[in-house]
Amino acid sequence: MARYLITGIAGFIGSSLAHELLRQGHDVTGVDNLSGGDIRNLDGIIREIDLHIMDVNETDRLRKCCIGADFLLHQAALASVQRSIDDPQLTHASNVNGTLSVLIAARDARVSRVVYAASSSAYGNKSQQAKCEDMLPDPLSPYAAQKLSGEHLVRSFSRVYGMEGVCLRYFNVFGPRQGADSPYSGAIAKFISMMLKGETPLIFGDGSQSRDFTYIDNVVSANLLACGAPACDVSGQVFNVGGGRSYTLNQTYDLLARHLCFPHGPRYTAPRVGDIQHSEADLTRSMQMLSYVPLASFADGIARTVQWFLTNELLAVS
């Protein structure tokens, strides 16, 4: 049994990690300021967690939470390109200052390893479809630049202080517990939620833009693999976490519409500033160094996600 500290534990990814770690018998401490997370994501496990309602920028309090932790999974962030464009100062405080605070607290408490939730948005609009980790980053938005800054902080702490740190570049994660009620929600969650309400979803652009939509179980698996891999292989390194294949928004919309028997095509509007055109993960390094293999395909993930939303919609009505 190991002790894990999860920042952003009430969020979509943080809560999914907590559920799986507790299932495996580990000890879990969680930190969340509930600005973006939902405490309901911890239903059924909240009494098993040492939960602290606080901001990651509260370094002194966070340091105390870190004491005795073997691994720190840093998921806390204001994760939205558009939100970073709307309010770059607020998102910088969370995504950059917050990451620095986490690393200082972990260093002082002698946490064995930090696994950082980085973002594939760091790649920008590279002409090559499959993005590999040794490409020169080219962030297009404040959010992408902020998450890339976090990577550099993790790597610098690894080099200067000898604290083990691993960066996982997530590609468009989706699945159960993902929020759908915000302007900044992920496309799949938002599409499903609107279709269930009988509303026609909106696509920014012509729908030809593609994403490596990655089911949540794959991301949870990658985090645990990053905790267990030899430090000589992974500390200070960056790894892609995706499905290894991309799908256009039009393809994704059509698949969801078939699952939900939704009869209408999407509405289209102008593309958003800061959005990339194509995103797909080259998984070669992750497979070699982390032994990462996607556990769920895009189609399986969509089916599971739709079923979760259908079940929870029925529970909400009843």
Automatic annotation (TrEMBL):
Q: What positions does the domain NAD-dependent epimerase/dehydratase occupy? A: 5-242
Q: What domain of life? A: Bacteria
InterPro entries the record matches: Epimerase_deHydtase (IPR001509), Lipid_A_modif_metabolic_enz (IPR050177), NAD(P)-bd_dom_sf (IPR036291)
Pfam families for the chain: Epimerase
Name assigned to this protein: Nucleoside-diphosphate-sugar epimerase
